[in-house]
## 1
Amino acid sequence: MTDINTAKANIKTTGFLDIAINVNLDLFAEIEKIKNKKNAIVLAHYYQEPDIQDVADFIGDSLGLAQQAEKTSADIIVFAGVHFMAETAKILNPHKKVLLPDLKAGCSLSDSAPPALFKLFRDKYPNHLVISYVNCSAGMKALSDIICTSSNAEKIIDSLPKEQEIIFAPDKNLGAWLNKRTGRNMVLWNGACMVHEIFSVEKITKLKIRHPAAKVIAHPECEEAVLRLADYVGSTTGLLKYSVDSTAKEFIVVTETGILHQMQKSSPAKTFIPAPPNNSCACNDCPHMKLNTLEKLYLCMEYETPEITMNEELIILAKKPIERMLAISKQYGL
Ligand code: 13P
Ligand code: SF4
């Protein structure tokens, strides 16, 4: 069996603490104990597995999670989400310990925008302002003027003068949707999310025929043809709120399946149908988000590793556009 020191040394390869846990341990109770003992807070994204959502202190979309990270008085922030989210929490709290249960929990969308390539692209548009979706690396954030999330992107774009030219990165689908909503012609970086690009128009249409009263609700990272089928398009928080407020009884949910847990909890009498991908895989589950497990969460809290560490200079550069986003969001009451 691997001992703790070997497991710590192996994190560079494994991404997490690969040690056995006593199967009789009540992980929910243990996590609560550690939270109190260490003044730690668990922030979880809606795409995390249900057990992690149930043990979290705050569950939210990317904007909500960044806002919680900004205002927390906890000494340790445990981020149950993907790397760019934990990195954002670290940028906002450079002196706090930020833990991620599995360092390999990345993001295909973030990976689709390597900073060095993006810099070459940006340099071709010297008069353009760069708005980057928060799903990007700290290196990309450092090359951006303002960060946005799917909750506040429209407001952030509308807050700029109409004549201001803009590059939007890295998500071309969200960018195209925002161009339509705002009447802009932003230059789009050609990035996408592997989960949101997989939904099938044909299968959603067939589902809709079988469930004619169901509302189709979709995340704006989906392709335009899918978004055209939607009754409502919004961030994960927006989708959850819509499902609670709507009088409809059935919903076809076109985003990662993790969100269904909170939808079902908030509206037990309603039916939520996950939109199917265009093949028979479980590709509507984000393989990055789902790398985190309750066991890895417990271990990272107990041993305070893996930890997010960042170069100070990068923190300073990446912080500015995030703070700009948070300030504009506050201004609009978001
Ligand atoms: P939001 O939760 O901000 O809507 O983002 C979805 C997402 O893809 C996170 O990875
Ligand atoms: Fe990234 Fe897509 Fe997974 Fe969100 S769902 S973390 S955008 S790969």
## 2
Amino acid sequence: MSVVSARPDSAPSTDGTSYQFNRAADLMGLDADVRRILAHAANESVVNFPVKMDDGHVEIFTGYRVQHNNVLGPYKGGLRFHPDVDLKHVRELAAWMTWKTAISDLPFGGAKGGIAIDPRQYSERELERITRRFTYALGDVIGPDHDIPAPDVNTNAQVMAWILDTYLSMVPPQQRMRSMHVVTGKPIGLGGCVGRDKATGQGVVISIENWARDRGFSLKDATYTVQGFGNVGSWTARLLAPYHARLLAVEDHTGAIMRERGLDPFELAGWVAEHGGVAGFPDADPIDHRTFLSTKADIFVPAALGGQITAETAPLLDVQLVAEAANGPTTHEGELVLAEKGISILPDVLCNSGGVIVSYLEWLQSKRSEAWDLDEVDGKLRRKITAAYERVRDTARTHGCDWRTAAYIVAFERLERVYMERGIFP
Ligand code: GLU
């Protein structure tokens, strides 16, 4: 029941035809052959698999894994469980992982996958069976030194534990202990890395800190709003608390809330864990989507799904900085509006790279049977993401371009160098 196509030349990756891809490639003069290669995903897997539900009936699910590029190292990227998951979208997300790992100077390529499913409609036991059967259907599409999944939208350490256990059951016993790095974002007891849970949020905060330092902007008493209060949004808010920055408004799938004197991110995270969303949070005013987007603040952190900042919504934003914690929150049309308004953008492939950076640290530890402490992990994350920030900033200055284009140029330069050195087989 599995369809695996290698190098589908007739189906260029969405990102390969995007405005940003072309602008960055034109501006830096990317080699035409390398450009053609990067415009395509290397492999695309679509698997349809049956799972028995709690009431005994069988449902068929569709899962995806797109491996965009592995010239820098094994394919790497998350798995998301969401109704919007389809081949076109996963293809785009996989390409963004290639840019992200290249910008952070990690020895990884880019991939992405997921299942087209609304996980809220299923019991925990059903989700476990769906995850295990998906892993089984993927077979050797994934592997510890070949393609390494991680958490993404609606997946977490528990889902990674199920994937690990299923994968290990499929390899000969002698290879099991050598395969613990087949996923990252595992629970700590199973070889996970301390600090991986907060890593994406931590990277967002370090990126904001770097941006603020460069502009002589004080984060003390700065105001901000957050869209999405799952792992990334809530960790970003909790990690901004020590700076005494004020969280004015939050929006998620249950609604939007606002409190002028500031929402306590720790209390809100507790409320969301108990109630499934921000709606009804005590002592906060419910507001509508437009009011949320129009809230005047210093920083807006989109940490939900992609495509939120568009030609229609961007005019509403009244902030100095958009720190892209989500993948692809800003459409090209939305970005033009932000530029016109003089709003800075920390692009997703830089701003949210803390997750995959700490995934790399976890992967190394699992490979070597080591366990590092939080200081070591946090220190390495800070150095890596700050170096990436400086590369993007300096490239934007050199080319006189926006930061997203600069980020793509940083990635393309690294990928081009490696292709030139390795050549194309045969
Ligand atoms: N899903 C995360 C991302 O989009 C993390 C990927 C990973 O750790 O491999 O960057």
